[in-house]
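Work Package 4 report. The design task specified in the project plan requires that, given a folded chain encoded as C-alpha cells, an amino acid be chosen for each position. We show below one input record used in the internal validation round.
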C-alpha cells in the first residue's frame, strides 16, 4: 500500500473545496435525484457521519474503499464520506458483469465495500475474498443520521479526520479497458483533479447559479468532472436516472424540467439528443426551450458535420459548444476548443489547445517532434498526469515515460494521433484503431465519412468482421443509420448495391465494407461510447450467425453430453 500514499503537497483536497461551498451556500440545493434532494449542509452532515463510521471500522488514509451504488443522492454522500476519511474510492458500476466486479475487487483489494444488499446478489458471497465479506458496509443498515443537524464542516474538522487527510493524495482509482482484455486501475490524486478544475473553471465561467447533470456512470472518469465541477462551485448536481440516459427523448424532457445549464456528453449521446430535438420540433413546430449555457464534448472523436442539425435550432454561442479531448490517465480533459460555425463543413476533428498546466507533444516513433501538418502520437505532460496504474509498475513505466525535454518531467503516451495545423490540434484517431485488413492499414473514420456522404445515410460505424476460426479479420461491416427523411427500403438489394457502388466510387478497394447493416440507433456502453460488441450481436442475429452466447451454450451442451456419457459408462461398470 506504500506506493499509494503519495504526499499531498498543497494540502488542498476535493472535500476541502466542497466544504468551502458548504460554508458559503449551506442552504442551497447541492444534489438532486428525482424527488430526492440535499442542501450543501445536509450533504456534508451525512458525509461526515458516514466518514466517522468508516473510520471506526478501520478505514485509514491511503486505503481503498470500493463503492458500488446505483444512481442516487446516497452515491454522492458516500463518495464524499470516503474522501473525508483520507481514503480513496474505487467506483464499481452495479451494471457491470460479475466477473468484472470480481476483477476490480481482486485487483484493488479494498478494505471496505460500500453497497446495498440487493446490488450484491451476483457477487455475494462466493466470489468475494473472505476478509472482505467481513467489511461490507450496507448503507441500508448504517446508523441513521439527522440531516437537519446543524454541525456541518463550517466547524473545525475532528482530530481524527484531520490526521487521516494529512498523508494521501490519492482520490480515486478508476478501471479502464486494457489492451490485454483485463481492466487496469488508473490512480488519480486530489491535486490532479484540482489542477483540472482550476484550469477549466475560468474559461467555462461556471458558478453557483449553474445546474450540472451527472449523466455518466461514476465508474467513467467523465463523472469526476461532472461531480466536482458542480460541488466545488456551489452549483446543483442533477443525477440523471439510468432510464433517461438510454432514451434521448426522456433526457430532453429532463433537461427542460431541471433547467440544466451545463451538459457534458460523449458525441454519440449528443447526436441522439440532437435527433430528439429535431423530432420534437417536427412534431410541435416549436423550438425546444432549454436553459443550457455550455455543452462540453469528451470521450470520443467529434464529427463537426454532425452538429449542423443542432445549429439549425440553437444560435451560435447559445449554448456554447466546447470540444475537450482527454484521457483517464490525464484526469478527464487535456484540451479546450470552443466551436464556431467557421469550423463547419470539415471532416476533421479539431480539439484546440492544451489546458493551463499541461503540454501536448506530437512525437514520432523515435520520440522526436513532428512538423506542422504531420501526424504524430500525442504525449501529455503536466500537473494532471495520473499517479500510475495500480499494481502494474511495468505498464506504468511503459506509458508514463521520461521526458526527452525535461529530466524531471514525465510524459503520458496516449496512443492517440494528432497533427498541428494553424495553431490548433486536430485529432487523427487511435493508433490502435487503425485496422489491418489483408495486410493493408485502414482508418475506419475515412470509411465512415465516405458513407455518411450518401444521401440516405445519417451515421456510419465501421467494425471489422470477426472470422469463424478466430483469425485476423479479413473484411469490414458498415453499420448505418438512415436519414429521417429517407423513404428508401433500407435492406433492399437495390439500396445495398447503391451503397456499395458509393463506397467504390470514393474509397480504395481494401476499404470497401463487405456488409451493410441498417440499425435504428447505436447501442452505447455505460460510459456513453459506441458499444461495438452489441453491434456485432445485432449483425450476428440478422445474419443467422451463432452469437457468442450461442457458442458458449453449444460448448456447455457438448461438455454436459460428455459428462453424461462418462457417468453412464461408470454405471455400467
Amino acid at each position: 500500500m506504500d506506493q499509494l500514499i503519495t504526499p499531498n503537497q498543497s494540502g488542498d483536497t476535493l472535500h476541502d473545496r466542497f466544504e468551502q461551498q458548504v460554508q458559503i451556500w449551506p442552504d442551497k440545493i447541492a444534489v438532486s435525484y428525482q424527488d430526492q434532494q440535499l442542501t450543501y449542509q445536509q450533504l456534508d452532515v451525512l458525509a461526515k457521519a458516514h466518514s466517522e463510521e468508516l473510520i471506526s471500522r478501520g478505514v485509514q488514509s491511503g486505503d481503498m474503499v470500493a463503492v458500488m451504488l446505483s444512481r442516487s443522492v446516497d452515491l454522492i454522500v458516500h463518495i464524499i464520506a470516503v474522501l473525508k476519511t483520507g481514503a480513496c474510492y474505487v467506483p464499481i458500476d452495479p451494471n457491470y458483469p460479475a466477473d468484472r466486479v470480481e476483477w476490480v475487487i481482486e485487483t484493488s483489494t479494498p478494505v471496505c465495500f460500500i453497497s446495498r444488499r440487493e446490488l450484491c446478489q451476483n457477487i455475494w458471497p462466493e466470489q468475494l475474498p473472505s476478509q472482505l465479506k467481513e467489511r461490507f458496509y450496507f448503507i441500508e443498515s448504517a446508523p441513521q443520521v439527522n440531516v437537519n443537524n446543524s454541525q456541518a464542516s463550517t466547524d473545525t474538522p475532528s482530530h481524527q479526520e484531520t490526521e487521516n487527510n494529512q498523508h494521501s493524495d490519492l482520490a480515486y482509482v478508476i478501471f479502464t479497458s486494457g489492451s490485454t482484455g483485463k481492466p487496469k486501475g488508473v490512480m488519480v490524486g486530489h491535486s490532479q483533479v484540482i489542477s483540472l478544475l482550476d484550469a477549466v473553471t475560468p474559461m467555462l465561467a461556471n458558478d453557483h447559479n449553474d445546474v450540472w447533470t451527472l449523466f455518466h456512470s461514476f465508474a467513467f472518469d467523465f463523472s469526476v468532472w461532472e461531480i466536482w465541477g458542480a460541488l466545488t462551485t456551489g452549483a446543483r448536481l442533477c443525477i440523471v436516472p439510468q432510464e433517461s440516459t438510454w432514451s434521448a427523448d426522456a433526457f430532453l424532457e429532463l433537461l427542460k424540467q431541471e433547467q440544466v445549464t451545463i451538459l457534458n456528453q460523449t458525441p454519440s449521446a449528443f447526436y441522439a439528443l440532437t435527433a430528439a430535438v429535431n423530432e420534437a420540433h417536427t412534431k410541435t413546430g416549436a423550438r425546444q426551450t432549454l436553459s443550457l449555457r455550455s455543452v462540453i464534448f469528451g470521450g470520443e472523436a467529434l464529427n463537426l458535420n454532425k452538429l449542423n442539425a443542432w445549429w439549425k435550432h440553437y444560435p451560435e454561442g447559445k449554448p456554447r459548444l466546447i470540444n475537450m479531448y482527454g484521457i483517464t490517465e490525464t484526469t478527464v480533459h487535456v484540451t479546450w476548443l470552443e466551436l464556431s460555425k467557421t469550423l463547419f463543413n470539415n471532416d476533421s476533428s479539431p480539439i484546440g489547445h492544451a489546458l493551463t498546466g499541461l503540454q501536448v507533444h506530437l512525437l514520432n516513433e523515435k520520440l522526436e517532434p513532428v512538423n506542422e501538418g504531420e501526424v504524430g502520437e500525442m504525449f501529455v505532460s503536466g500537473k494532471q498526469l495520473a499517479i500510475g496504474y495500480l499494481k502494474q509498475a511495468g505498464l506504468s513505466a511503459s506509458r508514463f515515460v521520461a521526458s526527452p525535454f525535461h529530466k524531471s518531467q514525465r510524459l503520458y503516451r496516449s496512443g492517440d494521433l494528432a497533427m498541428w495545423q494553424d495553431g490548433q490540434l486536430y485529432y487523427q484517431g487511435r493508433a490502435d484503431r487503425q485496422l489491418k485488413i489483408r495486410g493493408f492499414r485502414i482508418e475506419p473514420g475515412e470509411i465512415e465519412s465516405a458513407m455518411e456522404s450518401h444521401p440516405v445515410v445519417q451515421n456510419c460505424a465501421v467494425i471489422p468482421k470477426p472470422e469463424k476460426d478466430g483469425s485476423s479479420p479479413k473484411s469490414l461491416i458498415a453499420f448505418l443509420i438512415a436519414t429521417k427523411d429517407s423513404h428508401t427500403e433500407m435492406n433492399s438489394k437495390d439500396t445495398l448495391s447503391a451503397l456499395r457502388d458509393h463506397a467504390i466510387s470514393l474509397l480504395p478497394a481494401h476499404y470497401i465494407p463487405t456488409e451493410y447493416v441498417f440499425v435504428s440507433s447505436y447501442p452505447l456502453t455505460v460510459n456513453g461510447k459506441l458499444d461495438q460488441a452489441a453491434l456485432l450481436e445485432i449483425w450476428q442475429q440478422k445474419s443467422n450467425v451463432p452469437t457468442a452466447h450461442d457458442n458458449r451454450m453449444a460448448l456447455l451442451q457438448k461438455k454436459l453430453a460428455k459428462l453424461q456419457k462418462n457417468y453412464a459408462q461408470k454405471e455400467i461398470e
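The longest strand covers residues 410-421. Validation will be extended to a larger panel in the next phase.
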